[in-house]
Design goal:
This protein has 12 helices and 13 strands. It has 339 residues and is an alpha/beta fold. A 6-stranded parallel sheet has the order 8-7-6-9-10-11, sandwiched between helices.
Length: 339
C-alpha cells in the first residue's frame, strides 16, 4: 500500500491505465449482499479477502487485487464488490478475534509460502536436522511483519532466530517471541551505496565500521558459521552485508523490496559458497485453506493486545506514521466499519 501511495517502484495507476484507484487488499470483511449466482459465501459471513486477482496455472499470483490488477477495488472503502472466489470464510468456532485474523494472515501467509521454499532449499544441501545441531543454525531477519512471522516458523523448525530493528518497542516484541533482538542502532551506517563508497571517504569509513559490527554480531550468534538463512525484505542497502553474513550452503530468501530493487552479486562467490537465492511473491491460491487450518490448530497467530487500531478517517495518519517509521508494531491495523 505504501508503494502505491508513493507511486514507486511503479505508478500502479498508470500501470492499470486508470486515473485513480482504491487500494487495500487484505482484511476481514462481512458479506453484505451476495449475488444471485454466489454459492461459496452467504449474507453475514465473515471472510478473509484474498488478493489473487490473476494467477498462473499453478495458483501463484500474477496480478494483485486492489494493486496492479485493473478494475479492482480495495477495502479502503465503506463497501466494495469482490468475486466470491476471493473470499475465504472464517471458521465459525474460531478461537481468535477479528483483529487477530486481520493482522495474522496477509503477512503470515506470505511468510508461510516463502519459508516453505527457503527451508526446502536449505535442507536440500544440509544433511543434519536442525534439532540435532549444536548450536542450532541461525535464521536472521531484515524487514517487518513478514520476517517476524517467518522467523516464528524457523523457530518451530529448530532454528535459532534473530532479527534487527532500531525501534525499542519492536525489539521488545521480537524478544517476547523468544527471538534474539539485534539493535539496528549498533550499526547505524549499514546502508550500502556504491557511488558514495567510491566518492566519499567519510561515508566509506562509516559504512565499513557498521558492516564490521554487524558481521561480528552474526558471527557471535552463529558460532562463526554465518547465518544459515537470511530473510531480507529490505533490498539494496543491506544486500552486500547480508551476503557476507551468509554461511556456506546458506539461503538468502526474500518476498519484498522495500528499498532498492536492483542488486549486484559476484556469481563466483555465490557458486563457491553454494548460496541459494529464493524469491517468492504472496502464496499459492491452492494452499490458503491449509494455511488457515494450520493457524487455527497451531496458534501461529498474533496477540494484538491493546494495539492501536486506526479509524477510517485516520488512515492518512497511518500512512504518514508508516512512512516516518513511527509505528510501534510490525502489524498495523485499521478499521473501516465498526466490528
Amino acid at each position: 500500500m505504501s508503494h502505491a501511495l508513493e507511486r514507486t517502484p511503479v505508478d500502479v495507476c498508470r500501470q492499470r491505465g486508470e486515473d485513480r484507484m482504491v487500494i487495500g487488499n487484505f482484511g476481514v470483511v462481512r458479506v453484505e449482499r451476495p449475488g444471485k449466482a454466489v454459492t461459496r459465501v452467504k449474507e453475514g459471513d465473515l471472510c478473509l479477502i484474498q488478493a489473487f486477482a490473476r494467477t498462473d496455472r499453478d495458483g501463484y499470483v500474477k496480478l494483485v487485487h486492489a494493486y496492479d490488477a485493473p478494475g479492482t477495488t480495495g477495502v479502503l472503502a465503506r463497501r466494495t464488490k469482490i468475486g466470491e472466489h476471493l473470499l475465504l470464510p472464517l471458521p465459525k468456532d474460531t478461537r481468535y478475534s477479528l483483529r487477530q485474523w486481520a493482522a495474522s494472515y496477509g503477512r503470515y501467509w506470505t511468510a508461510w509460502d516463502n519459508w516453505k521454499v527457503a527451508h526446502a532449499c536449505w535442507r536440500s544441501q544440509v544433511r543434519t536436522d536442525p534439532a540435532h545441531m549444536d548450536p542450532p543454525p541461525l535464521a536472521f531477519g531484515w524487514g517487518g511483519g513478514v520476517a517476524v512471522a517467518e522467523l516464528e516458523l524457523a523457530q518451530r523448525a529448530g532454528f535459532r532466530a534473530a532479527m534487527a530493528s532500531g525501534n525499542p518497542r519492536r525489539l521488545a516484541e521480537i524478544e517476547a517471541k523468544g527471538m534474539i533482538p539485534v539493535d539496528r542502532r549498533l550499526f547505524p551506517d549499514l546502508c550500502h551505496d556504491e557511488e558514495r563508497m567510491a566518492a566519499d571517504p567519510g561515508f566509506r569509513q562509516r559504512y565499513r565500521q557498521s558492516e564490521r559490527t554487524f558481521l561480528r554480531i552474526v558471527a557471535e550468534l552463529s558460532a562463526r558459521r554465518g547465518a544459515a538463512v537470511v530473510i531480507d525484505n529490505i533490498g539494496a542497502p543491506v544486500h552486500r552485508a547480508t551476503l557476507r553474513a551468509l554461511g556456506r550452503q546458506g539461503v538468502l530468501t526474500t518476498v519484498g523490496w522495500k528499498h532498492g530493487m536492483r542488486l549486484e552479486t559476484v556469481r563466483a562467490n555465490e557458486c563457491i559458497k553454494r548460496h541459494i537465492h529464493v524469491h517468492t511473491h504472496a502464496c499459492c491460491f491452492h494452499d490458503i485453506e491449509e494455511i488457515l487450518e494450520f493457524q487455527e490448530r497451531s496458534g501461529w497467530m498474533l496477540d494484538v493486545g491493546d494495539q492501536r487500531v486506526y479509524r477510517f478517517d485516520e488512515i492518512p495518519e497511518l500512512a504518514r506514521d508508516y512512512a516516518a517509521g513511527q509505528l510501534d508494531s510490525h502489524f498495523p491495523l485499521f478499521r473501516v466499519n465498526e466490528e
